[in-house]
Amino acid sequence: MIAFENVAYNYGGGELLSDISLRLAPGSFHFLTGPSGAGKTTFLKLCYAELLPTSGHVMLFDRDVQGLSRDDVALTRRRIGVVHQDCQFLDHLPLSANVELPLAVAGRQGAAADLADLLAWVGLDRLAHARPPSLSGGERQRAALARAVIMGPDVILADEPTGNLDWDMSLRLLTLLVELNRMGKTVLIATHDLNLIRQAKSQVPARVLRIARRRVQLAGADL
Ligand SMILES: Nc1ncnc2c1ncn2[C@@H]1O[C@H](COP(=O)(O)OP(=O)(O)OP(=O)(O)O)[C@@H](O)[C@H]1O
Predict the structure, then answer these.
(1) Which of 42, 44, 211 to mutate to test the pocket of ligand 1 (most atoms within 8 A of CB)?
(2) Where is pLDDT greater, at 50 or 111?
(3) Which of 107, 115, 128, 150 is the 20 to 30 Å CA partner of 141?
């Protein structure tokens, strides 16, 4: 689904990520941990072709991202739902329109019933007409998750989705991500929250990737 072959990345100031080879199998559940500034967001950006590796190869759905045309990149990204760290909503549009935005950008029209089902699934059906600035942190994260899955992606990438949430809301969001994984989606979550990882491991066979000394390694059973 997503494969890295000897991937390195640098922003121009020395190598941030080096010699990374790994494979995220279809339907797998992974966490990505590492100190602040280690390169977790950068790694996620490589996973959805927002960045291209400075050396090595990133394969998305068996195709090398470096060989993809702009149109191919756009099509590939529709198969990958991303929950960004800062959510980024259009504040003048209601929540429902924000969640539907990826459909509009792709020139597709979704069924109103599907949108209602999706908002109900994340527990935001009563806030469909609310504007983003009036939402709580947990509501924003659930809206961001709904927006990430509205195109029916095969892969969900989430960057610190529980960063500013209390424990109950973190668990609620985790439950949604576990449900998506049980539906067959591949899930990768960047997080600092070791309690969240422990909790997830009691629900799904999650594996933990850790960035240390520029490498991404599979963490042992110490979590
Ligand atoms: N566009 C950019 N140009 C130059 N340097 C960048 C850019 N984006 C990120 N960096 C640097 O790359 C390093 C890794 O950043 P990244 O955001 O990937 O780390 P992170 O592990 O996600 O951090 P955090 O846990 O704090 O979110 C940091 O030192 C950051 O300052």
Answers:
(1) 42
(2) 50
(3) 107
